[in-house]
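Researcher: Structure for this, please.
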Amino acid sequence: MSAPLAESAQVAADAPLAWAAALVGAYLVGSIPTAHLLARRRGIDLGQVGSRSYGATNLGRTLGRTWGIACFLLDALKGAIPVLVLGWLIGALGAAPGSTPPETAWLWLATATAAIVGHTLSPWIGFKGGKGVATGFGALAAMWPVLTIPAGLALLLWCVLVLIFRMVSLASMVAAVSVPCSVAVAAISSNGLGGVRDAVPYLAISALIAFFVVWKHRANIARIRAGTESKVLQKKPADPAPGGGGGVKDAKDAKPTTGTKP
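Model: Predicted structure, token format:
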């Protein structure tokens, strides 16, 4: 980044108007109710089915896995687009943690947070929404290179946990918490305590996002503890046999129908 561009980026990051424009813009992009719009195309109100959440998981359970994956990708874009655009404008995109001025880093991170809040509290559907996982992933992954690798590792961890435990909620919470942990490990590995000081903004906001994701899943936590949480990738039970489905067991238990009395 050239010196004039660096200076203009610093000024932009310090300007209240830049903060207002970035936060409002990111909130509005994040607030697009993707799952709600996709469900409405099929005549379904997500607020009345399943978990009543306006997110990719509930959409996938309601309309099928393909719809859920499509919604996840679109929700991730809602987080990534504002972060990429602002990162390019203020010169933060592609910069190492230690080379980004604190004001610039905080503005960039606040923009990511605003997109996530917009997704979870969308004004277009009564300030309801999803749980911020997909939008959060997109926003953090777009912070190249500072948070891209931690976000990628979180996605890999999410996939592994879903395959093992079959619970999207559990995988989402653990993956969210793994991001600040990865940032801390990377910062210490690169430059000891000095690396941690450089990474404070990224540590603080990624930890705040992780807390927010866990808080949004508090009802899921109660169901996990009760053993009633919904699971995915489960085989559907076999259809009963025609005519009531007696099967082999019923045939064995059936009483004889001969004319001789017992």
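Researcher: Any notable elements?
Model: Residues 1-6, 239-262 have pLDDT under 50 and may be disordered. Residues 26-235 form one domain.
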